[in-house]
Amino acid sequence: MFSKILIANRGEIALRIIRAARELSIPTVAIYSEADRNSLHVRFADEAVCIGPAMARDSYLNIPHVISAAEITDADAIHPGYGFLAENISFATAVEAHGMTFIGPEPRHLAIFGDKLSAKAAARAAGVPLLPGSPGSLSDVEEAVRFANEIGYPVLLKAAFGGGGKGMRIVDDPESLRKVFELTQAEAEAAFGNGAVFVERFLPAPRHIEIQVAGDQYGNAVHFGERDCSLQRRHQKIIEEAPASGLSDVLRDQIRKAAVDLVASTQYVSVGTCEFLVQGDEFFFLEVNPRIQVEHPVTEQVTGVDLINLQIRLAAGERMPMTQDEITLTGHSIEVRVNAENPWNFRPSPGRIVGYNAPGGPGVRIDSAVHEGAMVQPFYDSLIAKLIVTAPDRSAAIRRAIRAIDEFVVEGIETSLPLQRILLNTPEFRDGRFHTRFIDTWLKARAEAAEGEDAQ
To answer: How high is the pLDDT of residue 166?
Structure first.
């Protein structure tokens, strides 16, 4: 096992890793920017090192500074959390080159799954269903039009690297494709340093279902059930739940098996997530996130498995501590991502929190690094807390989530909670009749209705 872990991240995920490491009796090192000097992850780690100014490129994304912090503190492993350097091949390679362990996948797996085209190739080789599309990156717009005509419109023009909705366009006809092709390439190049794009069939109202998986160095691969992450705005998840409701047992088993087959066929080592689009009784491979996910707590709640603990143990070379038959799902869990932003236009809302009360009671978990008096910085992601509720069934979990939101007080900044409370109360969510575009269409209809009332 490791003697000391440096955590190359901040906020709630850094605290989450500190807690898991402490239960394994492993000392931790926090890194922090000058803006984060008074953050909780700095306070609760065994050691802390300032690695630069507030801007992420000068601190949390500065690979030489992160490596140096690990060297001067004698850390023998680095946990990247999610975001920042978690999927950076150069960083993982540098960690290994300096004689330390990267607590995550090997660089070759980051390479396979960091490129959506090579990820699709791996999925194809494992027999996982794929959306019809171009087999590789497109050389020019005319090639894109030829493939789109074969697939049938609408199609999705998509960056081969990256995510988060950047470098992505829904296209309804050849003329529109010609107009946005170079723009999408430029956006992909600016966001991800690579302008490669491809085209694939567009599903108008799919569900986003992901399978939590893990593999060890001995060829063992398991899944921990699925999560439904369909409630998104601008391709960013805001409410997740486990398990997914409304799937037939046959379809559920098929998706889970596909994820495990992909992990096994690529000899993937670490925890990760295989993501799929589901429409009707069909499912299609979307991508693999080779890291811990923001929404991992809902899986922990229904399986009783500490996924960060498992991730550390697998990186240390341990064998998978459970078989598939020993992994069971009990109850239902919902996660609400609390973002520091206006709930209606999604503008970031940094500032000082002047009043704070976290909800409690049975089945309520808060993963957060904020408190009364904390400063929500404008330099980083707007996520400030994750509200996770667990109950015996989905209906009870929804009621518990609404009750917990009513107890959640964050004053001094705006948060996404008012929107999320309404969404949890909609008939569509309660009945499981939602999809990845539900929030966008719901907000549009809400705005149009308000304009109609104002006009009367």
So the answer is: 75
How far is Cα 26 from Cα 42, in angstroms, rounded to an integer? 16
Q: Are 387 and 401 in contact (CB under 8 A)?
A: yes
Distance, CA of 132 to CA of 151 (rounded, Å): 7
- Given a contact cutoff of 8 angstroms between Cβ atoms, the answer to whether 409 and 355 are in contact is yes
Element (H, E) at 189: helix 174-192
Return the CATH architecture of domain 132-201. Answer: 2-Layer Sandwich (3.30)
Sheet of 383-391, strands arranged across: 282-289, 270-279, 207-215, 221-233, 236-242, 332-339, 383-391, 364-368
What is the chain's percent helix, strand, coil content, to nearest 5? 40, 25, 35
Can you tell me which residue has the tokens 């269409």?
A: 441
- Summarize pLDDT for 389-398 with one digit per residue, the tens: 999 999 999 9
Using DSSP's 3-state secondary structure scheme, residue 168 falls into strand
Rg (CA), the chain: 22
At 168 the pLDDT is 86
Residues designated as active site: 291
pLDDT cut 70: percent of the chain above it: 98
Q: Which CATH number fits domain 207-446: 3.30.565.10, 3.40.50.1220, 3.30.470.20, 3.30.300.30?
A: 3.30.470.20
pTM over 0.85: yes
Q: Are 290 and 104 in contact (CB under 8 A)?
A: yes
Mean pLDDT of all residues in 80-105: 97
Distance CA 119, CA 115 (A): 6
pLDDT in tens, 170-214: 999 999 999 999 889 988 888 888 889 999 999 989 999 999 999
Q: Helix 107-114 and helix 89-97: axis angle, to 10°? A: 180
CATH dotted code for 5-103? 3.40.50.20
Token code pair at residue 365: 């978990």
Q: Please say if the pLDDT value at position 452 is more than 80.
A: no
Are 264 and 219 in contact by the 8 Å Cβ rule? The answer is: yes
